[in-house]
Structure formats: structure tokens, C-alpha cells
# Entry
Amino acid sequence: MANRMSEFTHDPVMADEIIAHLITNKNGNYIDLTAGLGGHLKAFSKHLNQQAKLYGVDKDSKAVSIAKENLQACHQKKYLYVAPYAAIDSLVEQFDDTEFDGVLLDLGISSMQIDDAERGFSFSKDGPLDMRFDEQSTETASDIINRKSEAELADIFFKYGEERQGRKIAKAIVIGRQKEMIQTTSQLTVIINQVIKPPYQTKSAARIFQALRIAVNHELEQLESVLPKIVTILKTGGRIAVLSYHSLEDRIVKRFFQKLQKGCTCPDNIIVCICGNEPQLKIITKKPELPSDSEIERNSRARSAKLRVAEKI
Ligand SMILES: C[S@@+](CC[C@H](N)C(=O)[O-])C[C@H]1O[C@@H](n2cnc3c(N)ncnc32)[C@H](O)[C@@H]1O
# Structure
């Protein structure tokens, strides 16, 4: 098991920038709701005193086992849980602490998940068409591909992958699955390549795989649901940092921060506020921060990252 675990690493994205914004109290409590292999938590540990506490949550039980190993040498108290982050409101009831100085959401996928062909996240590796972060959940990418109607597939590809050729690809999938079930990443890639001509095949495959992953894991619904819950578990002056990797996620985070910074939700033509909603957040990053050129050179997976940070007021 130890050998298998040590095969996997994940270089934490924009760790320096996140630490600079998130760590405001060296004795504080910090939580990565997408703990993965614990890369960010380990980086936080180096900037915290021994009294500080590190919490991690991830849906992927394998990732949590590896994070436990990776964090063993950190001198703070550590608490790691296998759970969906949208359950944070009920999960905190089991914690020693119910309020945090900093909360991180590092959305998307870890290097371990994408590099493991058996998880089915990568169109460049042959494996089962799975894509579940949580291997206990029931619906796989193959279930979606083989069971949804042509219109539903086209909708998923357009909504979650912003793929303009989604209708064509959905039609080819429905024809293809009449001959045999589509159960592997390469079967799906072959179908995409039949209808999309070079040099667009790789980009289309990337968009279709992204769309399926988002659908399988209900990623956007999870994100919409967790953001207000995070605000309730932040201390006043505590900070939330979100790293997103595509525009769909970033838009949700940006709008949420703006809405809570504004507070009032009255229509523009109302002169005196009647809703009574007070501002709850102050945006720290006016524009999203991006990884440095040297980080992208070192870790190409950081290239699409955008970091937004806000403070609870
Ligand atoms: C980009 S990785 C995080 C890497 C981590 N910050 C590190 O430094 O090692 C994203 C992680 O979020 C997890 N994840 C995705 N959706 C989740 C959800 N709804 N609830 C909990 N974990 C989730 C994935 O399993 C994956 O391990």
C-alpha cells in the first residue's frame, strides 16, 4: 500500500499566494475542504505555530488516506474526514472547532486522480469511463453516456463543457452505443474523433471529459451549496480562498463574493433599503490572481487556475 501511495504526488497550486492571503493568525484553525493529498495543508503547516489546527475534507477516500500519511510530520493537530464539502454544516458538529480563520476550496481534480487511468478522468489514458471523486457514489460517466437521451447529452456538453459541437458528438454517441455499450475512455475518444476533425479533437475531448466529470460529481451544485455554508463557519476577519480552473466555477465564486459584499438585494429603483441584508464579505482580490510564469513552467496543471479571496466582516 505504501508503495502504491508514494506513486502519487500533487504540487499544491498557488500555495504562496494562498498562504499570503489566508494565514492571518499563526495560532488559528485552517481547513482545506478539498484536501486531496494534503499539499496545501502541508504548506500551511510551515507558516503556523504548534497551537494551530489543520482540518481537511475530501470526497475521495484514497486521497484522504494519502493526505494522512503526507501530513504525519506536521507538528499541529490534524483532522481529516472523507465527506462531500457541501456537508460541512453537519460535519462541523463533529469537530473540536466550529469556526475557522481560513477556508480553502481548491476545485477540480488532483494529479493523482488524473494520472490514475483506472479513475477514468483522462482522455489520453485508456480506462473505465468512471470519473467519480467518491467511489461509493452510484452514477459513473459510463452510466450517463449510455443512459441519457441525445438531447440530455448535448445539454451536458454545452452547459458544462461549453462545447459547440456537442450536438454532433451526442448524436454519434447515441449511434455508437446502439452497437455496443460505451464503457471506456478510449471508446468515447474514438467517437469524438470520428466527428471532430484535427486540429480540434484534443480541445473537444477535453471539453467533453470536463462536462462529464462536472455532471457525474454534481460539481457546480456542490459549489453553489457550499459557499454560503463557508461564510457561516468563518470567524469575523477569517478568510475564504477559492482556486477555480474553469470559467463556470469562477463565475459562481465571483458572483457570490459580489453579492455578499453588496449585502442589499433590493431592486435598483428602491431608494431606501427594505431587504435589510447587510454586507457579509469584503473582497480581497479585486481581480482574480493568476499563477506566476515560473509556477506554470514547473507545474503545467496550474495554468488555468484563478484565485479569489474574501474576508468575513
Ligand atoms: C485539486 S484537488 C485538491 C488538491 C489539494 N488542495 C492538495 O493540495 O493536495 C481537488 C480535490 O477536491 C476533491 N473534491 C472534489 N469535489 C469535492 C466535493 N464535492 N467534496 C469534497 N471533495 C471534493 C477531489 O476529490 C480532489 O481530491
Remarks:
- The radius of gyration is 21 Å.
- Confidence is low (pLDDT under 50) at residues 1-6.
- The pocket of S-adenosylmethionine is lined by residues 10, 12, 32, 34-40, 57-60, 63, 84-86, 106, 108-110, 133, 217, 222 (CB under 6 Å).
- Residues 77 and 111 are 26 Å apart (CA to CA).
